[in-house]
Amino acid sequence: MANIKSQIKRVKTNQARTERNRAYKSELRTWIRKVRQAVDAGDATLANDTLKTASKKLDKAVSKGVIHRNQAANKKSAMAKRVNSLSS
């Protein structure tokens, strides 16, 4: 542990951010998994609903700085492609 007061505070804030980011990422993985499961089950309405929610969660994570905007865009695109494969 650091001896400098500002560095002690920095360590604490980094830990808090790490935990918050971990929670965000865990929630993202959960919603992405729900979309995948809905597509695998062949349930188009559930897949569309979960896709909408997952997209919102990804956008929120980008605005909070948890993930990069390109990563969110790639994930949304991949999920949308899978969901759209149900309708065709």
From TrEMBL:
Residues 1-22 are annotated as: Disordered. It comes from the Bacteria. GO terms for molecular function: small ribosomal subunit rRNA binding; structural constituent of ribosome. One of its GO terms (biological process) is translation. Keywords: Ribonucleoprotein, Ribosomal protein, RNA-binding, rRNA-binding. InterPro entries: Ribosomal_bS20 (IPR002583), Ribosomal_bS20_sf (IPR036510). GO terms for cellular component: cytosol; small ribosomal subunit. Belongs to the bacterial ribosomal protein bS20 family. PANTHER family: 30S RIBOSOMAL PROTEIN S20 (PTHR33398), SMALL RIBOSOMAL SUBUNIT PROTEIN BS20C (PTHR33398:SF1). Binds directly to 16S ribosomal RNA. This is Small ribosomal subunit protein bS20. The lineage of its organism: Bacteria, Bacillati, Actinomycetota, Actinomycetes, Micrococcales.
